[in-house]
């Protein structure tokens, strides 16, 4: 299935981006004029493809700051 291959190739893709790719690509998705992100999520869930959003954590969160001022 083309949607599954799209997500596997780009694991950081969002549902809205998948939707836009489906609507823009008439060669692969012929006859698809509309699709909801809910339907896309159900398709991915049915095929056990995770759809968790990737968040980048700033590097400074990983370090403990120590107060070096004298008391």
Features:
3 helices; 71 residues; 0% strand; elongated; single chain; mainly alpha
Question: What would you say about this model in short?
Answer:
By secondary structure, the chain is an all-alpha fold.
Notes on the protein architecture:
The chain has one domain (2-62). It starts with a helix and ends in a 25-residue tail after the last helix. It is built from three helices and no strands. Helix content is 39%, strand content 0%. It is elongated. The chain is mainly α and 71 residues long. The mean pLDDT is 83. The longest helix is centred in the N-terminal third of the chain and has 10 residues, at 15-24. The protein has helices at 2-9, 15-24, 37-46.
What does the main sheet amount to?
none
* Tally of helical runs: 3
Instruction: Please bin the fraction of helical residues.
Output: 25-40%
Low-confidence stretches: none
Overall number of strands: 0
Give the overall shape, derived from the CA principal axes: elongated
Mean pLDDT: 83
SSE map:
Elements: H1 2-9, H2 15-24, H3 37-46
């Amino acid at each position: 299935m083309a949607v599954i291959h799209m997500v596997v190739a780009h694991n950081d893709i969002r549902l809205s981006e998948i939707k836009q790719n489906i609507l823009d690509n008439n060669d692969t998705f012929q006859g698809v004029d509309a699709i909801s992100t809910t339907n896309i999520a159900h398709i991915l869930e049915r095929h056990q493809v995770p759809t968790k959003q990737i968040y980048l954590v700033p590097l400074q969160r990983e370090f403990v700051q120590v107060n070096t001022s004298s008391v």
